[in-house]
Amino acid sequence: MLSRMLYYIVIKPLSLLPLWILYRISDLGYVIIYHLVGYRKKVVQQNLTRSFPDKNEKEIRDITSKFYHHFCDLVVESIRLFSISKEEALRRCICRNPELMNQYFPEHRSVVIGCGHYNSWELLGVAFDPQVLHQTLCPYTPLSDAYMDQKMRVSRSKYGARVVDKNHLKAAVERHAGTPTVVVFGTDQNPSSRSKKLYWTRFLNQDTAVNFGMEKYAKDYNLPVFFMNVYKMKRGYYEYEFELITDNPQAEPYGAITDAHTRILEQQIIETPEYWLWTHKRWKRKREPQENE
């Protein structure tokens, strides 16, 4: 009942407002969240300090401030998606090179794409499917609140993408056996303590556990693997482009694909660090001596 009230009294009415008004709310939210509340500020600054040991205290503060501005924009942009039109979504999030992936469609060949929590991934999720030929499948972890989970799934899938419980990905792929699919993996989430499909590497100057699911899936079906670079052009406007990692994953040595997509994301973060999601505790899991040996 509480989540239903929150949706209809707060989220849905706010989503009907144009983004220029929502950005005024974002500006106020930045003052509250960053300066007054300090939401996860210690986590953000610790993550940044460890990731960029060569940066001084002032540089870390500057990145932190820029991050919280962007973070508040992400919140209002995500709210707007509950009511955004297809035309507005496509105007605000443009694919630079769809032909790179679309070339596999006439061959009836499915593909795999990795992306990080970088820039506006929620807007990207809504605008992605209409710009490519493949059927988009997005594995995700269901929310604990069933009502909000249903609302999120409807919002994310309203323009063609199929949002799939990550535990039922195989069944979803089989249901779309007659259509070439693109499975979009979030590659920078912290693997759960129960996860066995992980790979250890260095990422932002730290030992980091990376989910191995994308590489395993690509090798199991021998699918071309891409990474998706996302660029913020200005407030509320993004462009993304595909980068081919390999079109023959079964020929790649163990871990090569995972290392490749990790390096691509890392480079983007180094260039403009304020656009990555620094509030999450990315490095909770510690490496065991036998892992990756």
Protein architecture, described:
The protein has 293 residues and is of the alpha/beta class. The protein has one domain. It contains eleven helices and nine strands. The strands form two sheets. A seven-stranded mixed beta sheet has the order 1-9-8-2-5-3-4, with helices on both faces. Strands 6-7 form a two-stranded antiparallel sheet. Helix 2 crosses helix 4, helix 3 crosses helix 4 and helix 5 packs across helix 7. The longest helix is centred in the first third of the chain and has 24 residues.
Secondary-structure blueprint of this entry?
Blueprint: H1 2-15, H2 19-37, H3 41-51, H4 57-80, H5 86-92, E1 93-95, H6 99-102, E2 111-115, H7 121-127, E3 135-140, H8 146-157, E4 162-165, H9 169-175, E5 181-186, E6 198-203, E7 206-211, H10 213-221, E8 225-234, E9 237-246, H11 256-271
Parallel strand pairs: 1-9, 2-5, 2-8, 3-4, 3-5
Antiparallel strand pairs: 6-7, 8-9
